[in-house]
Task: inverse folding
């Protein structure tokens, strides 16, 4: 058996490895689209991420005009999400990783009565905001977070936006948020999932 | 070179292949858990799916006791999700595919005041329900849907449960739901995403 012949099985095996790895990596690449690392314009504005409605929902606080003298500071439904990678990190560690993005999409209060009773039902989309944690980019005064508004209006939202002044957002988060500038006290899903691993995503029944 | 020596590189390579395939398949297997086809016990009870908090959120109707004489039929926040495969189908076709599952996790009304104003904030988890579409399994009288409650209480929820009687759920859906037994009129995300393709998940800004 000469060297060339001897190596042939190895060569074939390498080709097989290549094919298998390519096949499996194509899935892995698809997975990568679920990674939402913040990107910025040359002048430091945050670029609106894509696909946030497929992030992980954490809660829906509501302070409607009808309960705040017609002038609520935040009259819309807040639909709050965390990006998938940071959700995975939260489940494992109970911490908001550097790079965490929480998205808040607003919807108007639509219907206030239905067959299910008197209350509040999501109306039209009305704005989009991001909280982003990056201790190397933002001040210690805000715990390493910054807050961005892409518009308080229907779509299309702004493509890019500068961070809000501290008084506009960070001040209240500093004063009242329970865990690392996030109002986890109002997000039972985050409380349940903290350090819980995959069980935090909802445990299936037994067959 | 004896046979044993000659095979050693191949053996090592096979071990490497095994390790790589195992590593990559762990990701692939994780992906497969994103498909949530309903499964049933031998006597036809639906088995509670796993990981619904990572499904796609569609809306959060609320009809609190405080606005319904203290006796609201549905006093909790309803956090409503659609399973990922059915969401993808909805984005592409605007239809609820056979097999669609909508999950509804309940949370008590927790705080009713915060620095953001008077209102309603998610409290503790308080129940879990599923709407499932399968025209081959369920009656035309319910449009091919059935409704399941895994408990109106904190976790742990029931592992399996039988379909609810028509009067308990389907009757109201038949009477008032806008689109194929689903209250899409209260789910702006479903309305926005219908036939919209990936744009329905939220469009990113331009660089």
Result:
């Amino acid at each position: 058996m000469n060297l060339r012949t001897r190596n042939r099985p190895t060569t074939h095996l390498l080709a097989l490895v290549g094919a298998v790895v390519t096949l499996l990596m194509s899935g892995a690449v698809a997975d990568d689209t679920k990674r939402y690392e913040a990107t910025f314009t040359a002048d430091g504005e945050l670029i609106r991420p894509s696909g946030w409605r497929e992030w992980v929902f954490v809660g829906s606080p509501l302070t409607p005009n009808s309960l705040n003298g017609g002038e609520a500071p935040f009259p819309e439904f807040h639909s709050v999400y965390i990006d998938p990678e940071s959700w995975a990190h939260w489940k494992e560690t109970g911490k908001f990783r550097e790079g965490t993005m929480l998205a808040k999409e607003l919807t108007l209060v639509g219907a206030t009565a239905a067959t299910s009773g008197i209350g509040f039902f999501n109306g039209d989309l009305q704005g989009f905001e991001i909280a982003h944690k990056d201790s190397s980019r933002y001040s210690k005064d805000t715990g390493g977070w910054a807050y961005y508004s892409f518009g308080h209006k229907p779509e299309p939202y702004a493509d890019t936006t500068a961070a809000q002044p501290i008084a506009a957002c960070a001040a209240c988060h500093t004063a009242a948020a329970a865990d690392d500038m996030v109002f986890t006290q109002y997000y039972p899903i985050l409380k349940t999932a903290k350090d819980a691993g995959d069980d935090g995503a909802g445990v299936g029944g037994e067959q």
